[in-house]
Amino acid sequence: MTQTKSGKAMTTEKRRERNSAAISPEMKNSEFHRFFVDELKDIYWAEKHLAKSLPKMQRASNSEDLAAQKAEHYEIATYGTLHAFAEQMGHADVAKLLQQTLDNEKATDLALTKIAESFVNEQAMAE
Ligand SMILES: [Fe+2]
Fold first, then answer.
1. Around Cβ 37, how many Cβ atoms within 10 Å?
2. What pLDDT, on the 0 to 100 scale, is given for residue 37?
3. Cα separation of 63 and 71, whole Å?
4. How far is the CA of 71 from the centre of ligand 1 (A)?
């Protein structure tokens, strides 16, 4: 249940009012908004599939690390675009969440780069 600032439980009616105030009917039906929602669905689908395949990739070889990093780059590009769209549409709360996700993806990308670099160094030491 959603609580208001005064501590009272927010009714479904009030919540509906608040949500519809954030997205006008024109915005909801706009091509831009539909594209934004389609993109969100797309990345959600990709994330679910990656969650399943990444553990398998991790158990496999170095080239699979590269595959994982390629996926990260795709995610970074997508979340970056979605974040810009959300800001453009004035969805500050959505933009904030997308920025957090983008930051997480960038951190993962950096971690994968470090793994790849240490692998290259190990290979060089072994030669
Ligand atoms: Fe990711």
1. 11
2. 94
3. 13
4. 7
pTM, whole model, 2 decimals?
Answer: 0.68
Q: Give 90-101 pLDDT, tens digit per residue.
A: 999 999 999 999
In degrees and rounded to multiples of 5, residue 82 shows phi and psi of: -60, -40
Residues 26-85 pLDDT 10s: 776 788 899 999 999 999 999 998 888 777 766 665 666 778 888 899 999 999 999 999
Those residues whose beta carbon sits under 5 angstroms from the ion ligand 1 are 72, 75, 105, 108
Per-residue b or e along 65-84, where b marks 16 or more CB atoms closer than 10 Å to that residue's CB? beebbebbeebbebbeebbe
Q: How far is the CA of 47 from the centre of ligand 1 (A)?
A: 7
Q: What angle do CA 42, 48, 50 make, to 5 degrees?
A: 100
Q: How far is the CA of 60 from the centre of ligand 1 (A)?
A: 18
Distance of CA 8 from the midpoint of ligand 1 (Å): 38
